[in-house]
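Subject: Intein N-terminal splicing region structure
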Amino acid sequence: MKHLLSIFIILTLSFQGYSQKKSKKKTVSKTKTTTIQQAPMAAISVEEEKITPDTLQIKKGKKYVFLVDVDKYSTTVAYDSANEYFSEESELKRNFSKENLEIIKINKYTYIFFENKQTLDITGDGQAFQAFAYWSGKIDDKVQVKEGTRMATEFVAEQLKSKKESSYVVNTKKYKKEVASLLGKNKITSKSKEVMKALLSGYSLPFSDIEADNIPVFQQGTAKLKTLDSYFLKKKGVRIPLKSVSFNNEGFPTAITYYDDEGKNRSKKEFIYKDGMLTKIIKEDQTAAAINYDDNKMIVTENVGDADETKVFWIENGQLLQKSYTLMADDKFSYMNTFVEEKFENNCISYYINNVVWTHNCGSANNKFPFIHTYTSYQDKEVLQFRKSKIEKKNDTTFEKYYSEAERADQNDNYKLWGTFHLDDFNLVDSFNFTKDNEAKTIKVDYTCYE
């Protein structure tokens, strides 16, 4: 993240400061507003600035908001915080649609000359500036400046004597109330246990990146597992471990070890139960996720550094769905809060982040083959990626996975074989052969079971 230098407003009576040589030791960025008494540009040393500043003339009669994000690497085309300011710009337009604000983004060293004889000096020898500025467009009103890249709505609302708030501030209040209503409850019913089983079945899969389009194959087994060990099977029988799981006599995982690409221990999880219900998940660093239930909901809470994360799971149309709240401990970072939600829509699971759709996962019935699955991801409401696959059952112990060459939903399918699943006598996946990066790979799974 870019280092933010402090910004101060300095009011002067002349432009003499521009002609003074700038110290090489100066490290604090200063946005200066001045009264013009002489032509300032003659005093600017281009060699000293290294970048020729822009000039901008601002006429009276309009309300102006400036979103400033400048450093020595900035250009006139793009800047590091473009996405941030796109969000802030949207917030301003949404909250002040009737104010007819003119929003100007400044991303290069610039002198801004106002018709009321003030100047906003956004220049400096390699300095960085991140701030908001506002001018009412009235000759008698001064330009107001505030450091920061967030909460532009609150800054403008203060100038307009309005009570508008940024959507992320409003949402934070809403999300905190929703989370508070979930915590502290522990109403355990038969529905609670069904949700718990559905969640634990995901942890019990042989490797951690099994996608939704492969799940039906892994739901064939009925044996009560005691241990599970998966690994890449290399030449000459060399094994590179992927994941190890231990189960209790009820078939629920009690410990999981994950391994990295080199087969080294990457992380661990321990599952704690009370009266047959999962109550806690402990990580290798001894941080824990606490679990409580509210009838058909399972609530998992965890501290994730500078934020608290609350996940809610439930079953809908036979599918495990979730929503999660990630809330920063310090409200001044409320713009970083995230709300994620899955919805069952048109026989698909839609995945939303901050109420914007990111993906659609659509599949046919899990117990019927061929199993057809489509995955679509979005960016700015446009399709970013489309992927279609199918799994065919060749016989009781062999399933084949195919990917379509279609890159859009309206294109014809031309399926290519990608991998083959082999099941053992207990209908558990014994091995998975596939091709990735033009290389044939084999994942092998070993099990022990309770009698």
